[in-house]
Amino acid sequence: MPEFINANEPAIRLGFFLGILGLVALWEVAAPRRALTQPRWLRWYGNIGIVVFNTAVVRLLVPLAPVALAVFAAERGWGVLNLVALPFWLEVALSVIVLDFIIYLQHVMFHAVPALWRLHRMHHADLDFDVTTGSRFHPVEIVLSVLLKLAAVAVIGPPAIAVLIFEVLLNGTSMFNHGNVRLPAGLDRVLRRFVVTPDMHRVHHSDIPAETNSNFGFNLPWWDRLFGTYRAQPALGHENMTIGLDTFREPGELHLHRMLLQPFRPGKGGYAIDRRPPDGDGDR
């Protein structure tokens, strides 16, 4: 089974990615939460273009995928879970939960450390919020994230199937909770106890710093509640809140080449979490 998972991991992940992307995109057309402010074609060419670019970069620079490392670690007895005897289902569940917590901590650090924020702010510079925003990350951030996941897999020693489940969930829930979709308020209240919903995560894309620095979860919502970073709703409401960053409001910033250059642009500053530079040139 591990060999089958390792051999078919790219096809499995691609299939889920395309399927969830298509379903959420159709949902956005049928029941949108907000009116878009920018042409869809302009944002989608940049956001989907960065996915293709990131995939090529990761395959070139990090040839060992986390699933493959999990198989390798199991064969050699590396990692905590390969040293203890637990029921297989419990190993899978613990692995997914711990990996999700690590991604939550990673997300907080990409807001807290100015150098990392300069990379991560490309994700926040989207002027609208839809399914493609969930895959809009700078390639340097993606490479760092993959390296962190590889380190986590080596230490934890999770089953390969757990790593695959986590990767599919992370990608799928990221597209779901970035969806410009409308959920009944009662259903949203129930769902956000178990998974990050679009209304919960949209708060994180507000241009108000206190809201930008909240709701860091991608998959499980528990970490935000546990560590005090949860914010239920945006102050201005979902229809009236402003998405994006004040320093990247020109539509030209949505082009792929401008997105790639954002972390290296002089004069665009960065800030540690909940703090802006003295001159006021902060990325709100």
Describe the protein:
The chain is mainly α. It has one domain. The chain contains twelve helices and no strands. It is globular and about 55 Å long. The C terminus is likely disordered.
Q: Unreliable segments (pLDDT under 50, ≥5 consecutive)?
A: 276-284
Q: Please, what is the oligomeric state? A: single chain
Helix/strand order, N-terminal first: HHHHHHHHHHHH
Beta-strand percent range: under 5%
Give the biggest sheet.
none
Any idea what the radius of gyration is? 19 Å
Shape: globular
Beta strands, count: 0
Helical fraction: 55-70%
Distance between the termini: 48 Å
Q: Round the mean pLDDT to the nearest integer and report it.
A: 91
Number of domains: 1
The number of helical runs is 12
List the helices and strands and how they pair.
Elements: H1 2-30, H2 40-61, H3 66-76, H4 88-112, H5 114-124, H6 139-156, H7 160-177, H8 185-191, H9 198-202, H10 209-212, H11 222-226, H12 256-261
Helix pairs in contact: 1-7, 2-6, 3-6, 3-7, 4-5, 4-6, 4-7
What are its keywords?
284 residues, mainly alpha, 57% helix, disordered C terminus
Summarize, please.
The protein contains twelve helices and no strands. The protein is an all-alpha fold and 284 residues long.
